[in-house]
Amino acid sequence: MTDARDARRPAGELEASVMAALWAAGAPQTPGQVQLGLGGGLARTTVTTILTRLHDKGVVDRRRQGRGYAYFPVQDAQGLTARRMHTELDRDDDRETVLARFVAQLSPGDERILRDLLEPGDQ
Amino acid sequence: MTALLLLPLLLPCALPPLARRANDRLPPVAALWAVTACAVVLAGCSLAALGLCLLTGLLELPLFAALGELIHPLRTGSDLLVLPAAAVSVGALALCAWTLARSVLRQARAFRTARTEAGRGPAAGDLCVVESVRPDAYALPGRPHRIVVTTAMLRCLDGPEREALFAHERAHNQGGHHYFLAAAELAAHCHPALRPVRDCIRLAAERAADEAAADRVGDRRLTARAIARAALAAQAEPSGRPAFAAAATAGPVPQRVRALLTGAPAPGRAGRPVAALLLVCAVVSSGASATALADVHHRVEVAQGDQRP
């Protein structure tokens, strides 16, 4: 079921998900660990293929670990560009006008409401 | 005449409550379109009304009357009203022009920065990761579209929650939501009553992206959890931004989370009255402006001797 859905996803989206999992981990990851970090939606062979592709593009690096490789993200020139852009946009007082941010600032009351809303089930 | 010009100037005051109601009653995408379109029409009409006030005032002055080739004095309601109204209009229009120009320049600069930077170099799909201790994520429209996420944001969410976040940001880019935000920003500079409407439009854009993300990952609860967790994590990290005063009502984030948790919006007739009211506002405002324009045009022609009164 999930495989069927993931098979239909564009390659770019899968690459983004795998890259995000590597960044989130904060340490070199084997394809198996990446697969776990993704929440189990992808086959391990798919994860390996994507990691190899990202390595070919030069956005991740890898080192030998056991019989396979462990992968980690590269903060290269492109990463530096992204950081510069981020700082520049951050400086602009009203960057919210053009950029739709994922979450807005919470007021003190909001925080309590949010925790209450999340209460049943998890957290 | 005066009433016709007052109408486009006063109608924007009715829009904030209507916009809030539209956000509650209409499906998010419909609310986004309806409120944005109405705000743009009302903003344009209020500018037109100010322009007409200014024009009639100017033609009262001998210098401009000569320039306009008026051979009779322009017939207006009362000189006591026309000249002060024109003076106020000059001030209001100058202020509008100044803030509009500044806003357009700033937004154009931000778009340009985003476009040039996002187009560079290879990336992992459309994802741009920025190393930062502050959880933050936003959609970056451009060619190609990008989504920018900080490492802190990636680390505070688990795998499926990250998917919900990406689906949300991609929905912003695919829906062209930045055009709506830009229109809301410009409208807010045209009339002070349209400022709160800007926040309604922002909320509608976020809600539309939330619904698209929930649809994409197939789990409303998961999407709600991702938003709530990201907001709480961002809160925990002291940011350099000034904290806003506590609002009386729940802020946008709890509203979004609650809407996702309470189930899919029922496509029903609940939104029809508010949609009709928005339409009436836009029609009345543009009708009044058009009539006032035709009226001024007629009186100028009479004063020029082209037409009999």
Please, could you describe this protein's structure?
The complex is a heterodimer of chains A (123) and B (309). By secondary structure, chain A is mostly helical. Chain A has helices at residues 2-8, 11-25, 31-37, 44-57, 77-91, 108-118; strands spanning 60-65, 68-73. The longest helix of chain A has 15 residues, at 11-25. Chain A is extended. Chain B has 309 residues and is mainly α. Chain B has helices at 2-10, 15-25, 28-60, 62-67, 79-118, 151-156, 159-174, 177-190, 195-217, 220-236, 252-261, 272-303; strands spanning 127-130, 137-140, 146-150. Chain B is built from 12 helices and 3 strands, in the order H-H-H-H-H-E-E-E-H-H-H-H-H-H-H. Classes of the chains: A mainly alpha (123), B mainly alpha (309). The interface between A and B is large, with 65 and 85 residues.
Task: Give the structure's gist in a few sentences.
Chain A is mainly α and 123 residues long.
What secondary-structure arrangement, pairings included, does this model have?
The complex is a heterodimer of chains A (123) and B (309).
Chain A: H1 2-8, H2 11-25, H3 31-37, H4 44-57, E1 60-65, E2 68-73, H5 77-91, H6 108-118
Antiparallel strand pairs in A: 1-2
Chain B: H1 2-10, H2 15-25, H3 28-60, H4 62-67, H5 79-118, E1 127-130, E2 137-140, E3 146-150, H6 151-156, H7 159-174, H8 177-190, H9 195-217, H10 220-236, H11 252-261, H12 272-303
Parallel strand pairs in B: 1-3
Antiparallel strand pairs in B: 2-3
